[in-house]
Please model this.
Amino acid sequence: MSAPKSLPKDAQVMIQILKDMGITEYEPRVINQMLEFTYRYVTTIIEDAKIYAAHAKKSNVDADDIKLAIQCRMDQSFTSPPPRDFLLEVARQKNQTPLPLIKPYSGPRLPPDRYCLTAPNYRLKSIQKKVSAAAGRISVPRLSVGGVSSRPTTPTLGTPSVQSVSTKVGTPVSLTGQRFTVQIPPSQTAASKTTTPSTPAVPNVLINPSLIGSKNILITTNMVSQSAASDSLKRKHEDDDDYDAL
Amino acid sequence: MAAVQGGLIDTEEEKDIKTEPANDGCGNNNNNNTANDGRLLNASPGSISSGGSNKPATGALEDQQTLLAVLQFLKKNNLSESVEILRREAGLSEDTEDSKGLDSSGAGSGGAAGNVDSESGDANSLLSRVSVSSSAVSASAVQAPSKGAGEDQPDVNVVLSAYSQQGDPALYDVYYSSLKKFIESVLDCHRAELSQVFYPLFVHMYLELVYNNHENEAKAFFEKFSGDQECYYEDDLRVLSGMTKKEHMRGNETLLDFRTSKFVLRISRDSYQLLKRHLQERQNNQIWNIIQEHLYIDIFDGMPRSKSQIDAMSGSLAGEAKREANKAKVFYGLLKEPEIEVPLDDEDEEAENEEGKPKKKKPKKDSMGSKSKKQDPNAPSQNRIPLPELKDSDKLDKIMYMKEATKRIRLGPDTLPSICFYSFLNAYQGLTAVDVTDDSSLIAGGFADSTVRVWSVTPKKLRKVKSAADLSLIDKESDDVLERIMDEKTASESKILYGHSGPVYGISFSPDRNYLLSSSEDGTVRLWSLQTFTCLVGYKGHNYPVWDTQFSPYGYYFVSGGHDRVARLWATDHYQPLRMFSGHLADITCTRFHPNSNYVATGSSDRTIRLWDVLNGNCVRIFTGHKGPIHALAFSPNGKFLASGATDGRVLLWDIGHGLMIGELKGHTDTIYSLKFSRDGEILASGSMDNTVRLWDAMKAFDDLETDDFTAATGHIHLPENSQELLLGTYMSKSTPVVHLHFTRRNLLLAAGAYNP
Model:
């Protein structure tokens, strides 16, 4: 069927509404979008009103039901910002507290970890069988093993869990499990000897840098603290895992 | 809703009865005047019962509501004995009131707050009661929707609205026309000032009619008189024309605020006396009542202002600024730059250029340095607000800055900057925000598809930091460790940051180039790391679109402003805001820090600009004069002046210290989206939707100012019509609206926009 010569009545009404509200320039698709919105809104309201009428055991939907439906929808989808006097009151309270002092030399100034998005968003499965000792190099490909029994919450704290993890970054980064700890925490806490058979395993990890790379997202989020850590090294400061101590 | 019907039907008949209890019933509201109680107690049951006896059945419902309303107010004021007596006499039961207790307490507190804010000093007692009731009405109207589902029971606010009615709606027409006739007959010099009254009066009367459900009268009133208003109120009037029922008003916070706040007018004493005398001598001084209630008239002694002077300052949603709003002291000076020795790094430079290099002991030589050792009286003290200390990397940055500053070109009317335009291609009209780092090495764009993209402008590519595994291998003691921590494999010209769930409307780089902030329609502000190109924090606080955000010039703090009409000051290490700047009547569209980081300027859709003090959150300046929402703000580098651009195409210049408008730059034909001062403040560049960049001579515009004949007390500004002289150049782009402007450290102008064929 060829395109209709004149617009349907609804579209004409919508054009008129736009004109009344002073909108003169718009793309033609806007009319379709507005009509869709209108249709969806009206059907939602009417359906709600039917439910309310049924609830009130009325046989017909009347104006009260519609009004109630509109009001409920307004509070749900079309909320408006809080009123001015409320805002003034809240602001007054908030502005009374003095500005907090800034701790010097505290690395990247971020809120406590639970308010940041820097936590790992995955957890590695632990493998059941314990490969006996001696670096288990072959099992390196199964890096998914990861002795990441440490909780994926705080990559920051040097969770002194048994295996690899030692530093703020360590946790998820330590990809291999117990016996064959691989990850040497790069920064100053290298001193912490919680990692067991560290050195010999290191070269192993290098074998599969790509696998490590796959964990990039996580690792890199911790790099902030890393780079700060390395910066702080330059400043010869001691361990600064206090950036979540706020 | 039944209550609404009842109110509508019975208004006519009960009008004369109501005017009586209007005086007495409103006496309830006056919390301060407990002496009224006795009078109230005798009067109200009496009048109500007499009213009741005259009425048919429909009136009984109205009386019931009235009684309940009176009871609630008595309860609110803890007049328990009166409550008992009234209840006994009227034969009401206990339980009918409890259900509305919640509503009325909300109304009461809202009303009390509104009362404190909006009471003017010289209102007489009747009018103070009336104003309390109307503000209680509007406050409760606001509270009621927030309580959830509508109630079928009689609302207190409906009853009260009947009381606050000022007169017969059909007569509003007459009142307005008679005022119009009077003002037209007045002397020329006073006419301009008195004409200021028309607009607020018109809007308030119209809203009153709509609020009291007189739809037809409201429409007729609007049609008759809307054409008379000033042209710059056109948009507001259009919004009003769409509002014909009370329900329409409910969701519109801006209008509700308008109703409760007082419109400020500045009128000379002579004109005011004229008006007052005329209105008070008439029998029907309804207009006087309305004026007392809704307008705040700031009287000054002196010559009446001319029409052009008034036009320059008016246009905002709440009238002009009161004189005392702009009286607080503002420390607009700059903070002292720390003395940094320019050590060994400079040796290579010294060889080529002996003179002009800062020696080790002398502080910087050019104007941005602290020439005098003593404190600038207009500058805040260094520790007025806590600022982060300088790290080594910051010191290196500063040294770079100083080096570049020496190579800076001095601009002026004869040496205009070259403009380099960065066009965003294939953005499909989705480019919504742009920012450039201070050293002009990175450009970030925020897009309507919720992504943020960062580009490197220099040949140096963007790299991510290496993974932990690789980092463990590098030699930490080597000199170029900062290069080694970067992962070459991830080098690319641009990076895309995903995370927002709505268009990104504001972007800001941190001064140390480590972080990027972005604010979006999803209500959050996100902090991204530019070393790992991942998101670090999402700051939630605004629950509505955040239109703009900016880092402080010293880092660590940032400000954001959005649809919820408040601007918030955050620090990167607090998940909640530190300060809330509340006071605007409409959305905040633009937020900027002062160069000394002690003040924040916010521009809003209510056409005002407010300057806030970071230390205590107070609003220290209000600038009115724009006729459209403000989209661009720029502080001059010396901190004394503020430039603002809006949808009306004008750039206005403000003196912060005195709180006055000192210049107006006309020339653009469409919204101005970006303003920037050159590095030394000699040139102001403005970019607009009309695809042009214009350069203005800021030096000259501010020079004329030094004349101190400030009729600052009266705020008479006389703006010279010198836009043409100040315009140094107009540069057209090929159908690319200019979204951002940036002067590099050497005073090359960069502009950015999305190509829009």
In short: Residues 2-25 of chain B form the longest helix (24 residues).
